[in-house]
Design brief:
19% of the residues lie in helices and 40% in strands. By secondary structure, it is an alpha+beta fold. The strands form nine sheets. It has an eight-stranded mixed beta sheet with strand order 5-4-8-2-1-10-13-12, with helices on one face. It has an eight-stranded mixed beta sheet with strand order 26-27-25-24-31-35-34-33, covered by helices on one side. It has a five-stranded antiparallel beta sheet with strand order 21-20-19-22-23.
């Protein structure tokens, strides 16, 4: 804290002159890590300058911890523009809450929170704290940025280790790095800032790929037992040994498992039956993998308590399968989107946040997420198409999870429109969702209250074009990878009458509005295909004929395809539109071509209205 205050005057005067365009800034940040074979001590100092009322959200300070990291020595002061102390934080102003209390049954992550505010701008919040750990596999994953929307003026990372303590580092966007040896210690120091701000863009890679970052981890460590991460095989063997005492599935549970599947000959069917039982009888809790919580609870613990985190549930089910002679492999993966980059350097604290099971069968390969309530064998957008780490004694290895194909993520929307009065229409919807759409509606159907579900379903189906009068989510069975919804609605927005002409608005499902090539700052990253098939059927009003021609169109590029076709039988007009944007990571050098493809589709969709001319007068 004292060291930070010494440079307060220089940094604050600079920021006061230069940073008025921002509501706040991280004026100064320093992290000091002292690492040894048995302990890790982290001291963090921050100074945040608040320039106006908009920036006051950064006056709410949150310090994250878990059972492996003891937080102590929190000190904080509120300073005015001259650097004079207005007041200091009191201990009773620090509140603690669970980090994930709103979404999980139990978790071991917590947040210490406090707020310091002043009624005159600008003002500064200066605070520091310590974390201590006795078990760790990662020294630091340092990103000295409060928000991508505000700058960091100066940031320093200092790591002190014994001279024989071997580490590996990776870094990006660092201005200066140095090492020094003092009194038998090596002192590593990185200095940087974040002043060239990057904002998230549509389908951009993770924002962390554009921020200053330093990751440091020891090659040798002790976490419960001695381990090494100088290569993947050694790290896998450590994980294998770490869980060696967790396979204590009670004898009674083993016998019940064998009885349950004794009349089933097919291994895949055995696994399906047991997986359904796992889904029905256990609950998911959250225990942080990134923070170092890599030791799964024993199988007996889950069997007794009926809950566990991803590690515990996966290991429990792995043990159940092995009790009937089916080999399953504990597998680490990064879950979520966008998918982060992977340089294959052994740094598990960076690459993984979730555990699933890999089960190779003679005629098939199964991937199971034991925390999921979705279909059997369904990984979905959460864990598809990324490197995963299979833990296997002396044969641990990286393998890519299956990638979703366009047909795996298709959203098929069918809409039938019929005029009911001169200016209103009835609509009938028959929609089938796979991929993102399936996951969204399936979660709504199973995991939210009735009022929230009803509001969300009506909003999603209407597309701001019509009112949903009724809908039905059809039960496709618990192992379906799609969801089917029908609905009835009405609209006052689709039809307009002008003399002898009837104007009908075509409900279009449009692609996102990508930035113009000159404005785009980041590559495009599409983790899985975007595939929609829309069919619009229009019942031509009696006494009217189509006066517009709707173009047939086919666009094929390396980025995707677009097809539009039109057909008419008697009084029914059918417009079919298919859009597919391929998965991929497209660099800025290709962005102009990618954007041109999107614009071609947008141009085709500019035909938003169809005109019908009265063919005879009464």
């Amino acid at each position: 804290m004292k060291q930070a205050l010494l440079i307060f005057g220089i940094l604050f005067s600079f920021s006061h002159l230069k940073a008025q365009q921002y509501p706040a800034e991280l004026t100064f940040h320093k992290t000091v890590i002292k690492a040894g074979n048995k302990t890790l001590t982290e001291t963090v100092t921050n100074q945040i300058t608040i320039f106006n009322r908009t920036g006051e959200k950064y006056a709410a300070i949150a310090i994250y911890g878990n059972k492996l990291n003891k937080i102590s020595n929190i000190e904080a002061s509120l300073l005015d523009r001259q650097g004079r102390t207005i007041r200091k934080l009191k201990k009773n102003e620090i509140k603690q809450r669970s980090e994930f209390s709103s979404s999980t049954f139990y978790d071991d992550a917590y947040v210490l929170e406090f707020m310091l505010k002043h009624n005159e701008y600008p003002y500064v919040i200066s605070y520091s704290y310590q974390k201590q750990s006795s078990q760790f596999i990662l020294l630091e994953d340092w990103i000295p940025v409060l928000s991508s929307s505000i700058p960091t003026r100066q940031a320093i990372l200092e790591i002190r280790t014994p001279i024989d303590y071997k580490i590996r580092t990776s870094e990006q966007k660092i201005r200066k790095m140095s090492t020094d040896t003092v009194n038998g210690q090596i002192i590593y120091q990185w200095i940087t800032d974040y002043t060239n701000l990057i904002q998230p863009e549509i389908y951009s890679p993770p924002i962390t790929e554009f921020l200053p970052r330093v990751s440091v981890f020891p090659l040798q460590f002790k976490y419960v037992i001695e381990g090494a991460q100088d290569n993947w095989e050694n790290f896998g063997n450590w994980l294998y040994r770490l869980s060696a005492n967790c396979s204590d599935l009670p004898v009674q549970q083993q016998e019940e498992t064998r009885i349950r599947v004794k009349n089933i000959s097919d291994d895949r069917e055995k696994i399906r039956v047991l997986y359904h039982r796992l889904q029905d009888q256990t609950r998911y809790v959250n225990i942080s993998l990134k923070a170092g919580g890599l030791l799964p609870y024993p199988a007996s613990y889950v069997c007794t308590n009926k809950y566990g985190d991803c590690k515990a549930l996966s290991f429990y089910f792995k043990t159940i399968l092995e009790s009937i002679g089916i080999q399953a492999y504990y597998t680490l993966v990064y879950a979520g989107n966008p998918i982060p980059g992977f340089d294959t350097t052994p740094s598990p604290g960076l690459h993984f946040n979730h555990v699933i099971l890999y089960i190779p069968l003679p005629q098939d390969t199964l991937w199971l997420d034991c925390t999921s309530k979705q279909a059997f064998g369904y990984l979905g957008t959460f864990t598809q198409n990324r490197l995963a780490f299979i833990v296997d004694k002396d044969n641990s290895r990286l393998i890519r999870t299956p990638a979703l194909r366009p047909e795996d993520v298709t959203i098929s929307r069918s809409l039938r429109i019929a005029q009911t009065t001169e200016t209103s229409a009835s609509v009938q919807l028959s929609n089938r969702y796979k991929g993102n759409g399936f996951e969204y509606f399936s979660t709504l159907d199973k995991a939210v209250d009735a009022n929230t579900k009803d509001h969300a379903v009506r909003y999603k189906l209407s597309g701001n074009y019509f009112n949903i009068l009724s809908y039905k989510i059809h039960d496709q069975g618990r192992d379906a990878d799609s969801i089917y919804i029908t609905a009835e609605g009405s609209s006052e927005k689709l039809i307009s009458l002008y003399g002898d002409e009837l104007i009908l608005r075509i409900p279009r499902y449009e692609l996102p509005d990508f930035e113009a090539p000159g404005k785009r700052k980041t590559p495009v990253q599409i983790d899985h295909p975007i595939h929609t098939v829309d069919s619009i059927q229009i019942l031509i009003p009696e006494g009217y004929g189509l006066s517009d021609s709707i173009p047939v169109c086919v666009i094929e590029t390396p980025f995707g395809i677009y097809r539009q076709s039109v057909g008419q039988t008697d009084s029914l007009l059918n417009i079919r539109q298919e859009t597919c944007v391929f998965a991929g990571k497209y660099p800025l050098s290709l962005y102009a071509d990618f954007h041109a493809f999107i614009q071609l589709i947008t141009k085709q969709n500019q035909t938003k209205y169809i005109t019908f001319q009265k063919t005879h007068k009464p």
